[in-house]
Amino acid sequence: MQPPTVPCPERIAPQLVTLVSRPPAGAWRYEIKYDGYRMLARIDGSVQLFTKNGYDWTDRMPLVAADLARMAVHSAWLDGEVVVQDDDGRRRASVWRATWSRSRRGECPRRHCVRGVG
């Protein structure tokens, strides 16, 4: 017997972050700034990619959508960044901008850094 399924929400709000020079003391959780492109992924039979402002960018990032479609996930929201690294594994915004058209053609490696899963 399979557990009941719950429909995936049509939209969610991104988990917004605050840039600081160093993490505060105490039991705070923090994350590293990746200099990638913030993206929300809705997986529910197909994959849709949305910017933090809600624009559908699935057609602009077909390789990212294809990568996420291969995951063993039936229904989920992923909140994270799409990151492109240079040859030394460093994340650089300039590399992302320079390789935008190459990534659309499948010639550029990419990495998905997920913040939250719903």
UniProtKB/TrEMBL annotation:
GO terms (BP aspect): DNA recombination; DNA repair
Origin: domain of life: Bacteria
Domain spans labelled ATP-dependent DNA ligase family profile: 22-91
GO MF, one example: DNA ligase (ATP) activity
A Pfam entry, by short name: DNA_ligase_A_M
Protein name: ATP-dependent DNA ligase family profile domain-containing protein
Organism per entry: Pseudomonas putida (Arthrobacter siderocapsulatus)
